[in-house]
Amino acid sequence: MNNIFEEKDTNEILNRLNKLSVSSQPKWGKMDVAQMLAHCSSFQDIAMGTSIAKRSYLGLIVGRFAKPVFYNDKPLPQNMSTIPEILITDKKIFETEKEKLQHKLIDFQKNGSELCENLIHPFFGKLTAEQWGKGIYKHLDHHLKQFGV
Prior knowledge:
mainly alpha; 6 helices; globular; DinB/YfiT-like; DUF1569
């Protein structure tokens, strides 16, 4: 399983991000490419501990049992619901959002896994650094596939 804490996996994601353009169209979902980048960047803030999203009631009940969905080898389902705090509906600027996400990913990878050890995911609850690393990669891969890269 790929892990964003592995430099080769981060580089792969960054290369795929560079294949996106302002005219990239989604294969599914409602977000445009700039909104998707902002969404991924907002999710990255949670993984970096710079933002905290409220735990959902459903997540409190079943999150710990469902959390392997976040870091296992199976692709995330299309049109899966998202954390309300990172649902992006307003207009965003593609280049700005792309640059923000790239910088966050580079910082996240370079700063190491210790910074996210035991941070709380709003649905799945407490995750190890390895689970965060795999989950972040999986989340980014899901959205890049959404836009055909």
